[in-house]
């Protein structure tokens, strides 16, 4: 009987392995390795012209994958190479002019790709000039060749009609360029001329419709006013067709009806009809949500960034409009919802692969994610300046995107989308208690109120109020009277008797801790509880989850501290860089002594405090677990002039990915920190980029007990690229982080107090508040010893 059970168990294991391999094969089916084929042909190119054309094929393929930067780089390089070929020869034969045709195709492709990118107008102008010159040269040569061969002149007109600038097949791209640059006269001229050509009917119906509507727009825009506004809206409505995120990413531009609605809204603004404009801007906002809804939860971080770049001008315009008219009814609620929408779209983690793991396919999905990570951290994935390394970078980017899309396409087959839900302020207010208030802090678009910040504040019974906050330059000085008078007093006037504050403020926290605000000896932390969160849109969910929390009798806690930053298995030679922190050992030993009788302790100390040990937590059962990391954090600034692929040079990074600019140091970190080895996996440097692809779902709390662990690059609309963002992406529920340098002794005291209260049965957030108040009472005039830590959910 026992033998029979063993045979069945063995059979079951074999079956499970077969299922796993089959699932992995299914995932890979979606990746046809087109990228590899493209780059193989590139390597086999026998001359510069063929090399340029293969690069052009790669550029087109990158655009199909929604990879704007890679497409632009490959296309620009192809154009330069082919232009150089043409500069070095005198065109004589048809073969020579085929190269002109190919170069024209590349330039038209780039013109189409770059159109509507505000930072590319100089390049666009040059491409337009080159395209016009190329077209005329090709038309001239073709006509001369026709005559030289003794052909009849009767057909010259049709040849000229076919080849003159802009050609019919290029008319959509060229007039779109004119549309985006405001050259309506050229649109009218070129489309009217094209409609008279005998070849006009050869265009596809949909393309003729696009051009006809663009002509209508061009005729209407110069005289657009309130009197003709209805016609503008009619045209915009007739242009509407359903699009997806993929459509926008592949085309790298918004559909044209968005700009028509925007022109209508601008007309209302200029005609002193802001409430009418508000209706149209709300329509634009609804169209954005409708476009993104189905695909929102399956966007890659790189796709989120691209989408932000394409949509950001619309959000900027809507926010500036609402801010400048905030005294009018409905403007502040619109601004608030607009800010929340932008956060949900571009700053919140989207595709978190570990959400979709099941018993049967988890190994396959983890295997695929591991492959993607290995490509991402290969040194060829970091863009360098030499032609060879740039090509290798392109190849890695393409292959990685193919694998990412394969993984997402597999997951989407069995998992429904999470629909985008932006709650209006009154719905969030309804979920509040009478003593609770919301403070949503956000950065304003550039050149608005001195690059400053604003806050929208409301309570259960008081509608949203807009408060303009001091600019960064003032916040950085941390003058107590300024913070109290300019920030706290205006907020206090709105919140009234409320004492529990929900604060969403990723970007300003590196300058501002509410716990540190005081007036003489009166700290506001004495009378107010601060609840930091990513977005106030999450408040109803967070409050609902609190009512369903089940207590765990014995928690698992994983400690990392006392790291030997110079340690490597082969050498312990002293290297300059991160300094050993004895205080982290003392801190963890004190907490361990407090918790050892009730918690399951897992310690990784000294040379065992490795990145490998931490990464091994990925995918484990971490339900209600706590991870406490006591080590150095780092944040390095981006400098595009640095060409090295090392992690940092003198505190600056040449890597463009923001999540590579911040991280944590584990044992052996100094080797990578000093450029003695390239950045990779399990090297002692754990970047936010690496954390973001881990599976730490179920983890109740991560404590980052180190200096500046909350810092990161900030981008308007996309939030802060920090360790907090990375751990959220990995599935962690809440964090304790800091924004300034903190002394070891007081950090230990704060942490011991926090765990003491939590162990006593107080919920973790209130335990943290009580610990921080204790520290304030011990060191009333030294907020630098306790106020820079925050608990964020």
Describe the protein.
This protein has 793 residues and is of the alpha/beta class. The chain contains 29 helices and 20 strands. A 6-stranded mixed sheet has the order 9-8-10-16-19-20, covered by helices on one side. Helix 13 (256-270) packs antiparallel against helix 14 (274-292) and helix 28 (744-759) packs across helix 29 (764-778). The protein is globular.
Shape category: globular
Mean pLDDT: 86
In spatial order, strands of the major sheet run: 9-8-10-16-19-20
Unreliable residue stretches: 1-21
- Fraction in helix: 40-55%
Largest sheet entry: 6 strands, mixed
Tell me the span between the first and last alpha carbons: 53 Å
Say what oligomer this is.
single chain
Chart the SSEs and their pairings.
Layout: H1 2-29, H2 34-43, H3 48-64, H4 68-87, H5 94-114, H6 121-148, H7 156-163, H8 171-180, H9 184-195, H10 205-220, H11 229-239, H12 245-251, H13 256-270, H14 274-292, H15 301-324, H16 331-347, H17 362-376, H18 387-414, H19 425-430, E1 436-443, E2 453-459, E3 465-469, H20 472-477, H21 480-495, E4 500-504, E5 518-519, E6 522-523, E7 529-532, H22 539-546, E8 556-561, H23 582-595, E9 600-605, H24 611-615, E10 626-629, E11 633-635, E12 637-638, E13 652-653, E14 662-665, H25 669-673, E15 685-687, H26 688-692, E16 701-704, E17 712-715, E18 719-722, H27 723-730, E19 735-738, H28 744-759, H29 764-778, E20 789-792
Parallel strand pairs: 1-4, 4-7, 8-9, 8-10, 10-16, 12-13, 16-19
Antiparallel strand pairs: 1-2, 2-3, 5-6, 11-14, 14-15, 17-18, 19-20
Helix pairs in contact: 1-17, 1-18, 2-3, 2-18, 3-4, 3-5, 4-5, 5-6, 5-8, 6-7, 8-9, 8-10, 9-10, 10-11, 11-13, 13-14, 14-16, 15-16, 17-18, 23-28, 28-29
